[in-house]
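So, is this right?
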Amino acid sequence: MTARSDQIPAREGLTPPDEPPHGAPSATRKRMGLWDRIRLLLLFSVAWLIIVWAAMADNPLLPFVDAARIQAVDSQWLLWLAGAELLRQIHFLVSERSAPYHRFWSQRVFGGTERALRRRFSDWTRFRLARLLKWLAFIVLFALVAGQILETSPVLAIFQAPALLYDALPFILQLAFAFFFVAFQFIGLFWLLTRGGVDTYYPDDITTRFSDVWGQDHVVARIKENIVFLENPDEIEAKGGYVPSGLLLWGPPGTGKTLMAEAVAGETGKPYVFVDPGAFTNMFMGVGILKVKSVFRKLRKLALRYGGVIVFFDEADALGNRGTLAQVGPGGQRGFGAYHPAGCHGVSYLSDDTRWLLAKESMRAHAEPAEAPRNRFVMGGMAGGGGGMGTLQALLTELSGLKKPRGIINRVGRRILGMRPKPPPKYRILVMMATNMPEALDEALLRPGRIDRIYRVGYPSKAGRVRTYEGYLAKVSHELEPEQIDKLATITPYATGATIKDLVNEALIIAIRDGREIITWKDVMRAKQLKDLGPPEDVEYIERERHAVAVHEACHAVVAFRTRRHMEIDIATIEKGSDYLGMVASIPPEDQFTRWRSEFEADILVSLASLAGERMFFDGDSSSGVSGDLESATAVASFMEGYWGMGSTISSYSTARRLEVGSPGGGRGGPQKGESTESVLRRALADRIEDQLAELLGKAEAILTENRAAVLAVAHALETHKTLTGDDVEAIIDRRPGITLDGTAYADPQFVTQLEEYHAAAAGAHRGHTGITLALPAGHRERDPETDTAAATPTHQGEPRIPER
């Protein structure tokens, strides 16, 4: 069957929402809006009133009623036009409510004309012709009204209109000047407020390259992919894809996020725009929005001029305060540590319903448990008693990718001429953001299409730290061997590029202060102690308290050395700091991502060593300085029992508390009458924690009893030197030569006897609150790094002591 020649060709594509489906004409005419129905009537009414007003202006004595009666006769053509328009609208109103009436006029009367027009002209041509006819009708109406007012022919009135406009030009200019003067004040004020906070660097201004970024090779490798797309976008767009234009770097401070952004700009040779985090913080509403618009206007110009541009938003969390990225683990930790205890993703293998239930229950939780301990295990012994939402929304709009055509002539002029504006060019803009608070970013900002790739820039691995140390040490003169650099990377597990640079610089300052230009291992260790502990307070202990603090820290050190294999001693000191009297700090010797029950038990043993040691060495007495150690031990034991499944039960305390299902491992039956479930849960958990701590306290006492001589030896070394490195402590306990100290002196039975006698005198002074009658034994030897021989330390401690009062 062949189609008839007068059929309307079928249109392709989807039907607009306000039109019926193709080939299915509507039963009635589409209802018109109120403005579409009355706009021509209003136009004719205004034109007639203008004529009446002109007549009254020519004859001031003529009242409005008489002028309207006269013009009703003289300008009746306007009234006839208004009447015709009124009849047309009545026709449309009936056609909107009567299907037969609408079919008669649309198919039988005007159907042939409509089909002929569709065959001869396209939709776009018909639209332009209709718009031209409307403009001609408006010009004719204007000419008729002007001729009526000027009492001349319509043609002459059109030519006289510019002269009338010229006569009124001074008054119009005065009004325009007043308007623009007032507007310019506000425009100038807001323009000045939008300046600042945005720095532009051109290709020759940046010399940073990827070779300058150390310790983050895996992130740099992924960032290089974005550079390929920025330099050659057609490679992916030709295959139907799109170029990733957003990049987020998140991680702890000092890991090199800003340096990576500079390296991207340096490698690509594109302009680099740095947006200060405080640029969008303003005292007036709306200034941040204008600044966002100004920034992206500049970016588009630079992108067209240089073929691409890179913009970097530092501290992007200042732009919004909603959203979640970082996972929060037990204890409310939001840690960035590269070696944070990791485990199986506990919801990835669950069904959707189960995950939804768990999410709902977690949102019902009213409180979070205390923060879990960090990997850096510090025994603090002897403690003494943004941008508004409008700014964010403007940024989201700019990042969405919807751009309007460029140029006023392109947007307005071409439309006036009935032409489609030229589409906007493809702006090659790579948006990079950095933050150390990813959980504060809005979720809409992180969606694909705005921020396409999210990379975590965490603490560098040991290999990365070694490379970073080598890079910064290569810029100075030093004597460090590769083995020492490897050791330095091991004892600084959480060092970032910024902290490593600062440590090397501090070591250089120490060497220069000592009159040298070459950094030695001793300079590095002194710099590390200064950065880790800060400058010690200028205080002196009385002798019996100094000995008690030394014994306290020696117990930590010995138990840590004997029981802990997952960490090694970093430093031990009895120099008083801002919030401690002494401390033993331990670090992981290798990159570790999981933690085990045996490791946590060893941590508790080290914490309880202070209480067990004080009771053993001071006849059952103990100080308030163990409070911090007991707090650490209790926290670890609580997590082991209630969260990590490392205690006598395997159920989760937090879940049982939320669901009120009873007490995990707390015996049979629920709460008694008048007793809350919460109290039962807490009592049962507290009992299990106390039992575990009591058992581990007994183990700590046994270890100290077996290593009594080692405790006194380390305490003697602490009293002598105040601060020891981990190598020093190990050399003393093993009674062997160390790197800086010689521990063989503690293998002498006679010297060990002297240490026991001195401790007995110190314990007696402790009980009687008197001075120690014996001098601190001498004989500890310090290694000479030049001759590698042992030299006796000064024996000023051997002088007679005057008993304290």
Q: What stands out?
A: The radius of gyration is 42 Å. The chain has four domains: 34-170, 198-326+387-456, 462-531, 536-666+675-798.
